[in-house]
Design goal:
Blueprint: H1 3-8, E1 11-18, E2 22-29, E3 34-41, E4 52-57, E5 60-62, H2 65-72
Antiparallel strand pairs: 1-2, 2-3, 3-4, 4-5
């Protein structure tokens, strides 16, 4: 799978988690084989730090985008588009 094919996959919102030290948003593909989480650390003074992203293929987590894209080259899912209006 290429990066262009990845951009065409619809991801939907899964969960939001707000902790004292971090906020996290999770997204997944319709078949739940691909996903990503956006993490935003919260500092002690109440301000937020820079958001970073972790990627997931099946149950394996990638912390670097380059390693995730490398793993995608061998990945060919049968992704079903999200059925809207059901």
């Amino acid at each position: 799978m290429t990066e262009e094919e990845l951009k065409k996959i619809p991801f939907h919102f899964v969960a939001s988690l707000s902790l004292e030290t971090e906020h996290t948003l999770s997204y997944a593909s319709e078949d739940n084989r691909l996903g990503f989480c956006d993490h935003t650390p919260k500092r002690k003074n109440g301000t937020f730090g820079r958001t970073y992203r972790h990627y997931r293929i099946d149950k394996k987590v990638f912390k670097k985008r380059e390693k995730f894209l490398e793993a995608l080259k061998d990945f060919s899912p049968k992704v079903v588009p999200i059925r809207k209006g059901l």
